[in-house]
TrEMBL record:
Protein family according to the UniProt entry: Belongs to the HINT family.
PROSITE patterns: HIT_1, HIT_2
Domain HIT: 62-170
Source organism of the structure: Geotrypetes seraphini (Gaboon caecilian)
Reactions it catalyzes: adenosine 5'-phosphoramidate + H2O = NH4(+) + AMP
Name of this chain's protein: Histidine triad nucleotide-binding protein 2, mitochondrial isoform X2
Gene giving rise to this polypeptide: HINT2
Any Pfam family hit: HIT
Coiled coil: none
CDD domains, per database record: PKCI_related
Gene Ontology MF terms: catalytic activity
Histidine triad motif, short sequence motif: residues: 154-158
Active site feature: H156 (tele-amp-histidine intermediate)
Amino acid sequence: MAARGVGRGLIAWASGLLPRRPQPRLQLQRWASSLGGPDDEVSKAKQADRARRICGTQSPTIFSKIIDRTIPADIIYEDEKCLAFWDVNPQAPLHFLVIPKTPIPRISYVTEDDTELLGHLLVTASQLAKKEGLDEGYRLVINDGKLGAQSVYHLHIHVIGGRQMNWPPG
């Protein structure tokens, strides 16, 4: 079953009402399809948290593998501090991620030393949203920890738009 609201966006996208976005390379599509649907995000977050606690250290994440080009992604922006790419499991017609190149596991782990980097991530997200035509608005999401449904322990900002967002989000 499609996530709430995604079906209409996909129909508009497929019918040509919205611009077509680059498709992820086959390897990344296979990886994403093995994870399950959007309803599985909570169980993925619980598994990721459990694995992180068992290992006791931060192992390489899919995002660090995208940064080092071990795993392909449809990158839309890169500079010395961050990388942005299309989400493989979009929750709206436009859905991309902005990640720092410096691995920070959770937003709750940031320090005052990260102030400049966090500002840079938000400014980058805003500029890319404008570039992608999200002039009517969009949503920024940062999931934190198991209860926040964080499934990848590398700080990332979801930029989601191209349709009306609902409230409350949870």
